[in-house]
């Protein structure tokens, strides 16, 4: 009788642990819009999620520690005139977030320390260039202030947020139909796209050239997603001809046949892949699913190894993924997801069980830090660079708040004129109001504490 040899991996026993009720964000009205984005974005300071809004589009930004029931009158970011479809935090500034909307614009916002005190209606910069709704926004991983957006006009625009200008355009000659997903390579030299014409393309955006292309990576008609993974490979999720969900791994130099193709189940939700380059684990989260599957990618056949699955009772409306620098290393947490329910956001920690409390160097190699490796000008000039790495051994210490500086030129003058004409308050007036609000809140908290102390004294007597 032959014995089956179990593959050795330190991630075989990774398990998911949902947060307790008091560590969740309760009573949030998650957007009902039918769009295949995560609807949630997270960084070490804030969690942002797209919410229902009457008469326009809005998303909620909460400080990470502000868990529990969310006040129904909590201020939102509400400058869009139509529903918000996608949001993304800047990897080099934890206070800057971009949003794409059905109103055909991309807006970049700066969130103050401690979160919003008043509704935020005025973005730092509005990026106008798409003629149809904008469903995808992705920041460049290593270049400062470079943002990519993809719209339902089948156009990809790359923006220099510092000037508010579109510096690169990939028109409908590159993508003749709706773009389903866009992902940057780790050094930001290439992008990988999936399209409704059933093709996955690898593109050099600065030259506008298609480096490699694969027709029908999955035989089904439903949307395909594609992301870069380690060693020049890409991972795709899609559907078979029989509507079974599939995951496939491809070598970008030989796209004729997949390195690995696995069928998963017959659910209808699109699988959103999240790849961790530090551990080579890819997590698959399906909208409408109640589970998260995870696989390990290795350099030897069969290349894609199923690890395990986290399951819960309730299905997910969306999912946010925390960058590695926001994790708790003393608890051996290797990933954290923020699962959106209909009226709740629930953190789920992925943990490797270890007995020791010491820093586990094999689980936490140096990871991408918050500093940009290149300026926008250097990247546009042809330079590439991997992310600047930091060690998490002594814990992550966030840098001081950085102001997003935008040279808007004529646009600023037009805005000022419009503001004066409409009688809307200037940014200085808004800042003064916010400061007054902070002082009032501090006074209210102090009064509440005094009242509690007084009640305790009365009870003691």
From TrEMBL:
State where the protein is found. Answer: Cytoplasm, Cell cortex; Cytoplasm, Cytoskeleton; Cytoplasmic vesicle, Phagosome membrane
Q: Which Gene Ontology BP annotations are present?
A: actin filament organization; cell migration
Per its UniProt record, what Pfam families does this chain match? DUF1899, Trimer_CC, WD40, WD40_4
Q: Spans of biased composition, class Polar residues? A: 419-429
Per UniProt, the ranges with Basic and acidic residues bias are 405-418
| Span list, region Disordered | 405-432
Report whether Cell inner membrane shows up as a keyword of the record. no
Q: Mind telling me which PROSITE patterns this protein's record contains?
A: WD_REPEATS_1 (PS00678), WD_REPEATS_2 (PS50082), WD_REPEATS_REGION (PS50294)
Key word Transmembrane present in the record? no
Q: Which residues form the signal peptide?
A: none
Any one Gene Ontology molecular-function term assigned to this protein's record: actin filament binding
- Could you name the domain of life of the organism this protein comes from? Eukaryota
Give the chief site where it resides.
cytoplasm
> Which UniProt keywords are given for this protein, alphabetically ordered?
Acetylation, Actin-binding, Coiled coil, Cytoplasm, Cytoplasmic vesicle, Cytoskeleton, Membrane, Phosphoprotein, Repeat, Ubl conjugation, WD repeat
**What does UniProt give as GO cellular component?**
cell cortex; cytoskeleton; phagocytic vesicle membrane
Q: Which family does it belong to?
A: Belongs to the WD repeat coronin family.
Subunit details for this protein?
Answer: Binds actin.
Q: What is this protein called?
A: Coronin
Q: Which organism is it from?
A: Odobenus rosmarus divergens
